[in-house]
Each structure stands twice: as C-alpha cells, then as structure tokens.
Amino acid sequence: MFQPFELLIGLRYTRAKRRNHFISFISLISMAGIALGVTALITVLSVMNGFERELRERILGMTSHATVSAFEGGLENWPQQAQLAERHPEVEGVAPYIEGEGMVRRNGLLSGILLRGVDPEFESRVSDVGEHMLAGAMTDLEAGAFKLVIGAELARAIGVGMGDKVDLMIPQASVTPAGLTPRFRRFTVVGVFEIGMYEYDRSLVYMHVDDAGALYRLGDAVTGLRLKLTDMFRAPIVSRELADLIPGFLFVQDWTQQHSNFFQAVRTEKLVMFIILSLIIAVAAFNIVSTLVMAVTDKQADIAILRTIGVTPRSITAIFIVQGALIGLIGTAFGVAGGIALALNVETLVPALERLLNQDFLQADVYYISDLPSDLHWDDVGKITALSLFLGLVSTIYPARRAAKIQPAEALRYE
Predict the structure, then answer these.
(1) Which of 30, 37, 45 is nearest to 281 (CA)?
(2) 333 contacts: CB under 8 Å, gap ≥ 6
(3) Among residues 165, 183, 166, which one has the least CA distance to residue 174?
(4) Where are the alpha helices (DSSP H) in 89-191?
(5) Conformational region of residue 75, where left means phi above 0, alpha means psi within -120 to 50, and beta covers everything else
(6) Where are the alpha helices (DSSP H) in 99-172?
(7) DSSP assignment, residue 67?
(8) What digits encode the pLDDT tens for the residues 113-141?
(9) What's the whole-model pTM score?
(10) 119, HSE (Cβ side, Cα atoms, 13 Å)
(11) What sign results for the dihedral spanned by CA atoms 308, 313, 318, 324?
C-alpha cells in the first residue's frame, strides 16, 4: 500500500509549512501528548515492577520460599524430615523454626511482636536477616542464654539497645498459687537488624529455637521447617513434590500461597494503572484525527489536482496515513526515550527531589517500602511502543478515507 510515491508526498506534507499554522500547533500537541503518555506509562510500570521485586525479595528474605509444618501440634522428628527435604535437587537449604505471638515490655512500654525461634547454624541457609544487622550477629543467639535479636523500629519504639534487658510475654498462662499468670521471661538484646520493610523492622523478634521451645514448652518439637529453593518461581511445583517425598500428615505451603492476596493485588493494580495511563496515549493519538481532518480540508485543492492526474483513492489514503503515522511515530520515539531515561534514573532523581523539597514521599511507618525502586522490563517497553503505534495508526484511518472520497470537480469549483 505504501509505495515510494505516497511515502514521499506524505513526508512532504508533514514537513511543509502550512498556510494554517493552527494545524502545525495541533500536530505538535499530538506528538507531545503521545510522548508524555508513553513516558508516564513506562515510568509507572517500571516503578511498580520495582515495588513488586523489592517486596518479593524482602518478604522472601525474611520468610521462606516454602514451609513444611504439621496440621496440629509441632514436628516431632524434624531432623529426619529435614534430611528428606534436602534430598530434593531444588532445595538449597532447610532450617527449623518456632513461631508465635507475644509482647515485649521495657520501662513500662509495651509492644506486640511476632516471635520466631531459629537455629543460627541453619538460619543463614534460608534467610537474609544476617546480612542486614545494624549491631550484633545472629550467631550471638545461644541456646539457654535467652537472648534476642530485634528490629530497628521496635528497638526505637521501646527504647532498647545492645545489652538491654526486656521482658517477653506470650499468650499462654502458667498456673501459680496466685492463679493463672501470663508466661514471661527476661531476655537480653544482643542484635538489631533493619530490613527496610517497616512491618518486619517493627514487629519481628528472633531468639534461639531451644529457648523458644522452652518458652512454649514444645520439648524437641518445632513449628515447622523453612526451605530455600534454587528457583523461587518453581515453588508451587517443588512444594507438591516435597509433599509426596516426605511421609506423614504434613502441610506444605509455598510463598505464592502465603502471600497470594498481596501479590495478586500488586498485579491487579499494575494492570489497572496500565489501562488508565493508556487512555492518555489514546487521547493524544486521537488528536491526530483532528489534525488530519484539518489537513485534509486545507489540502482539498492539492488532493483534487492529484486525482485529476491519475492518483487513485487508495494512494490518497496512503498519503494521509503516512502523515498521521509519522506524528505517532515521532511522539512514540520521544516518549520511549524519555520513559527509559526516567525509569533508569528514578532511584536517583526521587531522593534528590525529596532533599530539595525537604519532604519524604514514602514515609516508612505508612508504606511497606520507604524508597522508590524501579525495574525496567523491556517487554513492557515493547508492549507500550506497539500500543502507541497502533493507536496512532488507527486514528489516521477516518481522515485518510475521507480524503480519498473528495471529488476533484467539487474541490476545484471555487478555486
């Protein structure tokens, strides 16, 4: 359809100085609108990809790719079950854990916590918490020493530091001559970690698995086993294989089940944002319609002359499609360049803007993540580019067909 003749005339119409400068202005507005929409869409999707990546890494760095636990009570023979799990070729590490809820008290300040008993020797195989220590180390947790490693936000909330004593209470009662009393124990803080995710930094507390077992009176049992896999995205498949591999009435759960609602909400929000921001591109693209309609009106005499020398309606259609498609192409090119540049530099530009305005855009106590990450996916860039070019091309069809229907005699009657 696009022969060199139609292409050359279409390019000439785009470059030519028009008698009606308003048409040129509308063309520039259309290009700018498409560029702005494409830039915004690439940047927003990159930021949302970054949020999803950061949340996934931070959540899985603190939890696990999969867990094996009993339906009731605890795992009694967990060492044997851990050995069976490690036989799977996709399991990198296995660690026992005891988990429960409790409350810490220091100088009259109380705070609810999520208590996790771990074995420091195995924990590094499944968790990244040891890499985020502000003070102390996970290896400072010793069996029978009743020591704690707490999050930085929790430490600030109750005003504790290294070596301080805190009272830890759990929602289980002990029978004493005075009646039922909450079970508590005094612990020493030997480490402070900061993941950068407020939920964990504010509520998570680590202790040795033997101390947690004594506190909850579990004996040698544990809540379950935490597993780290070579490929986190194969967790659902590996979990089903482990359920068949390990005998007993066990509950095997992977991270996609534990946090399914959360990550599904992120994906849904990403889709909604894509649709909403695509409307910006659509509005800008349909400005091409008004631009070409005015161009067709302005070029009626030229169209009539072309028709009288033998140019077919098909070629007239192609000329104006070329003209409109070029507007969409230029706008898309500038938008893609701007979107890629902005997406790759968001993590630098946003902190600079926060310092300039002296304001935090993402407060740590409100949002899961206090910085603005970005993760540019080239497949997203390809989809956005294709969408923009498609909308720009579709918007040329009506005015181009209208130009092809112009009758030479009618157009030249008053010339």
Answers:
(1) 37
(2) none
(3) 183
(4) 120-123, 152-158
(5) beta
(6) 120-123, 152-158
(7) E
(8) 889 988 888 888 888 888 888 888 888 88
(9) 0.65
(10) 18
(11) positive
405 residue type, one letter = K
Residue written as tokens 């956005």?
Answer: 384
Residue carrying the six token digits 């044997």: 80
CA end-to-end distance (rounded Å), the chain:
30
3-state secondary structure 120-165: HHHHCCCCCHHHHEEEECHHHCCCCCCEEEEEHHHHHHHCCCCCCE
Residue with tokens 């209208």: 402
CA distance 225 to 223: 7
CA dihedral 80, 83, 87, 91 (to 10 degrees): 120
Q: How many CB atoms lie within 10 A of CB 61?
A: 17
Q: Which residues contact 54 (CB under 8 A, 6 or more apart)?
A: 369, 373
Task: Read off the amino acid at residue 399.
Answer: P
What count of residues does the chain have? Answer: 415
Q: Could you report the per-residue pLDDT of 294-336, keeping only the tens digit for each?
A: 777 766 777 777 767 777 777 777 777 887 888 888 888 999 9
* Phi/psi of residue 289, nearest 5 degrees: -60, -50
Contact indicator for 10, 311 with CB cutoff of 8 Å: no
Structure tokens at 67: 């867990």
Q: Which tokens in the block code for residue 87?
A: 């036989």
